[in-house]
Design brief:
The protein is mostly helical. The protein contains five helices and no strands. Helix 2 packs antiparallel against helix 3 and helix 3 packs parallel to helix 4.
């Protein structure tokens, strides 16, 4: 089955934004892995990281101690297999 570029674009644009973002990054990575990482990191820094920082400044009680973060990551790592 062959899909034209415009059909592919239309279907892609109908996806929810978060899914569309992941698909776009995977497609970009298939062309240029280094560039894809740079774009993803830059996008994260300009959006999610900024938002999280602003929320933390507004409400410092949202902070999670580093020990708790490490414990959660260790638990996820241990549960992966």
């Amino acid at each position: 089955m062959s899909v034209s570029e415009s059909e592919f674009y239309e279907v892609g644009m109908s996806l929810p934004p978060e899914v569309r973002r992941h698909v776009a990054l995977r497609l970009l990575e298939s062309v240029d892995p280094d560039d894809a990482f740079d774009h993803a990191a830059e996008a994260w820094l300009r959006t999610e990281a900024v938002t999280a920082y602003e929320r933390l400044v507004q409400d410092p009680s949202r902070a999670v101690p580093a020990e708790d973060v490490r414990a959660r990551l260790n638990a996820k790592w241990a549960a992966r297999s």
